[in-house]
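From the pipeline queue, job 12 of 40. The input is one protein chain; the requested action is below.

Action: predict structure.
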Amino acid sequence: MTNTQRKFLRLLQQKKVRKQNKCFLIEGAKIITETLQTTNSNYKIKQLFVTQEFLKDLKNKSILNDKLKGEFEIILSTSNQLAEAGSLKSNNAAIAVIEFPVWNIPKKIENLTLLLENINDPGNLGTIIRIADWYGIEDIFCSEQTVDVYNSKTLSATMGSFLRVRVHYGDEFEFLKLAQNNTFGAFLDGKNVHQTNFPKSGMLVIGSESHGISEKLGKQILNKITIPSFALPTNKQNNNQSAESLNAAIATAIICDNWRRN
């Protein structure tokens, strides 16, 4: 790995540089092995920086032999170089530079989908993508203010699920129209999620961690739902504070589970 290459990898940790170059980084043995094995042609590797140890692994060598047809450049690197270039404190395996995938936005919703409005925490977004993968959700729509899916912390939190879930960014109001009134939003004052009959297809809207769904978007959502709290009344009698709301990713998981029960 040259100094120029190392500097470029460091720069790719900035959102504006990723957008300019239309590529992002993935780091570590597990995620890179999974990416190499995926049949999803939307994720194309441009460069692969690997240690000699990772390359010697028979499994990795077998995977790479299938890919070594001029598709991408393989550059030998040391563990220290990988750690300096990436976001991981230690990396004895690899870093890959991946081209941005190109997704077609569906013309209508035929499955459960998610709309995320202004999710700020990369860990939350990554976990939501992982939840979507678990519940068979193929598309997630995000407002432009939602954290970047290619943030290193987001990708790490997905545990590889970003390979199987399409994430779209754009106008949340336009995305909402795709659901054709089968829209459900998470609110503090909505209908009990345990008593809600969900359709086969529709859109679940999750708002920001701090403010929830905005008032303007909320007016466009047909069904307001909530997860009831079962905080013990003794907490209130003793003036103990109970949780005001749930983490965005946890709320997503609970609602998706209730949705799929239908």
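Job complete. Residues 3-99 form a domain with the 60s Ribosomal Protein L30; Chain: A; fold (CATH 3.30.1330.30).
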